[in-house]
Amino acid sequence: MKKILITGAMGQIGSELTVFMRERYGRDAVIASGRRDPGDDHPVKDGPYELVDCMDRGRVAEVVKKHNIDTIIHLAAVLSAVGEKDPLAAWNLNMGTLLNTLEVAREYSCKYFTPSSIGAFGPGSPQDNTPQDTIQRPRTIYGVSKVAGELLCDYYYAKFGLDTRGVRFPGLISYVTPPGGGTTDYAVDIYYGAIKNKSYTSFIKEGTYMDMMYMPDALKAVCDLMEADPAKLKHRNAFNVTAMSFEPSMIAAEIKKHIPEFKMDYDVDPVRQAIAESWPNYMDPSCAVEEWGFKAAYDLPKMTVDMLAKLKEKLK
Ligand code: AKB
Is 142 one of the annotated active-site residues of the chain? Predict the structure, then answer.
């Protein structure tokens, strides 16, 4: 990976991955891109930045050619809860940008990464210890687009020999960039509620387990997978990765250890609750462990200590 293009660099993982990869591979090795100019004081502007709408394949190709890109990290996507508000727009954006970037990667022989999600599973998938290869019949347009994306990445690998790689991300938790319209967002919002008001109203019901991961582990996972020996990879899209599984009262109890006055109540959102119930309780990440050494450093207690300390500083 000498020159990396990151699409959707303004999204939750995009801006942090840009900073992380620049630290790891060099400032000029990572070209961040997005549909908007984020303003000069945004961290993604600390290095090369290009305005790119991935619905415009010609523009993607122009930027790949201009910077001699050999690796595309395609992140631009509409998430699960927002997707349900306008399914057609979500499908068009998720599939249109995926196909355009895959085609450009094929044309310019780039290595390719795009994330799938726990959203690629559905009510028919085994919910406990969800296997790497199993039934995938999601009920959200986001999930349908993620399954289609996984299949397309497999297809481009098998048909054209494109070096496609990916992970099924769980809910990502970060103090830097807020998430943008997902079902797992409560697990980020709760920390903001704890620091700002010592309280939080959860839109997800007590007892609803989902997989989660702290952002530093997610960033490292992307780099570790992209650096992995291709001969060892049996799966081309996408690996189950997870660091922890919890339900709302567990994260509340963990926060209470540090903020004893913290109170949580519930006002369940039926749309997001139904999505959460259709997703795994916890996935089996053993293929990622075996094929490229996936390992997460943060569990719920360790993440909570860090999140609360960092947010306290940030919101001062
Ligand atoms: C969402 O909740 O939609 C995302 C995801 C798990 O893919 N955070």
Answer: yes
Give 106-151 pLDDT, tens digit per residue.
999 999 999 999 999 999 999 999 999 999 999 999 999 999 999 9
Give the Cα separation of 279 and 128 in Å (integer).
10
CA of 143 to the centre of ligand 1 (A): 9
**pLDDT tens for residues 154-212?**
999 999 999 999 999 999 999 998 888 899 999 999 999 999 999 999 999 999 999 99
- The CATH code for residues 4-170+214-240 is 3.40.50.720
With CA atoms as reference, report the closest residue to 113 among 241, 213, 289: 241
Pick the atom of ligand 1 nearest to 83's CA: 3
Return the structure tokens found at 145. 């687009």
65: number of Cβ within 10 Å: 12
Instruction: Look up the pTM and report it.
Output: 0.97
Q: What is the DSSP letter of 133?
A: S
State in Å: Cα 199 to ligand 1 middle. 23
| Active-site choice (25, 49, 108, 142) | 142
Q: Which of 12, 13, 80 to mutate to test the pocket of ligand 1 (most atoms within 8 A of CB)?
A: 80
Domains 4-170+214-240 and 171-212+243-283+295-314 share a fold: no
Q: First vs last Cα of the chain: how many Å apart?
A: 39
